Amino acid sequence: MEAGFSEMRNELQSRDALWRRIQLECQQLHTELLKIREYKDMQEIQMKNQSSCVQLTEQLENKSTELLLLAQSQECQREELNKIRNHLYREEQSHCSEQERMKTEISDLTEELHQKEITIATIMEKVSLLEKQLKMELEMKDKLLAKQQLLDFQYKVIKSANAHLREVV
């Protein structure tokens, strides 16, 4: 996209240079036209050479025609130049809009990532707390199991002692 902009800028600069040359030629033609008119006026005052006046008049008409054609060409170049400038402006605006959209999207994704990190941290805290609770419950159950086994053993011992006493009695 940058290469397209560069190419369009180069084209714009080339057309600007052409435009300036055309303007310079127009100025030169206008200067020549003024000189020709002055020369024609002098010829008319002096009335030396009428054929020369006719020739200068034809040249003047030719130069006027050339000047008119150059002015028309200059107008076409100006319109083309304006079209290129407008196109370049639209492309730059589109590029800027796309950059803004991407910045917004990146910002939204960053915010979403931050929220997910917070959620993960909260879940990790809960997992850690649940692990501690589970560990405490397991320790308590192990103690109760050991106590239960001790009571079972004592029960068997007493039962055995009672059975032995019954036999004795």
Question: Rough shape?
Answer: rod-shaped
Q: Mind describing the biggest β-sheet?
A: none
Number of DSSP helical runs: 2
The fraction of residues assigned to DSSP E strands is under 5%
The domain count comes to 1
What is the subunit organization of this protein? single chain
Structural class: mainly alpha
Distance between the termini: 110 Å
Radius of gyration: 51 Å
The helical percent reads: over 70%
Q: What sequence of helices (H) and strands (E) makes up the elements? A: HH
Number of strands: 0
- The stretches of 5 or more residues where confidence is low (pLDDT under 50) are none
Mean pLDDT: 85
Q: What report would you give on this structure?
A:
By secondary structure, the chain is mostly helical. It has one domain. It contains 2 helices and no strands. It has helices at residues 2-46, 50-168. It is rod-shaped, with a radius of gyration of 51 Å. Residues 99-126 form a coiled coil. It is found in: Cytoplasm. Keywords: Coiled coil, Cytoplasm. This is DEUP1 protein.
In brief:
The chain is mainly alpha-helical and 169 residues long.
Topology readout:
Blueprint: H1 2-46, H2 50-168
Helix pairs in contact: 1-2
Organism: Tricholaema leucomelas (pied barbet)
Protein name: DEUP1 protein
Keywords: Coiled coil, Cytoplasm
Describe this protein with a few key phrases:
single chain; 169 residues; mainly alpha; 2 helices; 0% strand
